[in-house]
Amino acid sequence: MLVGHVDSDTGALGEFAALYDVRPGDRVEVRRDGARPVVYRVTSRTTVPKDDLPSSVFRRTDAPVLTLITCAPPFVPEQGGYLSNLVVTAQPSPA
Fold first, then answer.
1. Which DSSP category does 22 fall into?
2. b vs e for 40-75, b when ≥16 Cβ sit within 10 Å of the residue's Cβ?
3. Which residues form the domain of 10?
4. What would the pLDDT profile of 39-94 be if each residue is shown by its tens digit?
5. Under 8 Å CB-to-CB from 49, ≥6 apart: which residues?
6. Contact predicate 69/87, CB 8 Å
7. How big is the CA angle at 77 (ends 71 and 79), to the nearest 5 degrees?
8. Number of domains present in the structure of the chain
9. Is residue 67 one of the residues assigned to a domain?
10. Considering the domain boundaries, does residue 23 fall inside one?
11. Cis peptide before 74 (omega within 30 of 0)
């Protein structure tokens, strides 16, 4: 699982802003220092309220998956910022 910000408190876009454009079937490459990249194919994407983030995204059993989580609109400063999370799930894929 990888979790990252979509933007900063200054409004500058973060690395995970690109997740807004990811769709099922898209290729995701995870680069690792000193090792070959690992390739995944996106199988799902969903937006959920932060309070409803399912515990299944943190699972450590069953077949391996890559779960990417970032903030999602709406952004409500007086309620602490983004109220939802974008959850992207991908499965290992041959390079």
1. -
2. bebeebeeeeeeeeeeebeeeeeeeebbbbbbbeee
3. 1-41+63-79+87-95
4. 999 999 999 999 898 888 888 888 889 999 999 999 999 998 899 999 999 999 98
5. 83, 84, 85
6. yes
7. 85
8. 1
9. yes
10. yes
11. yes
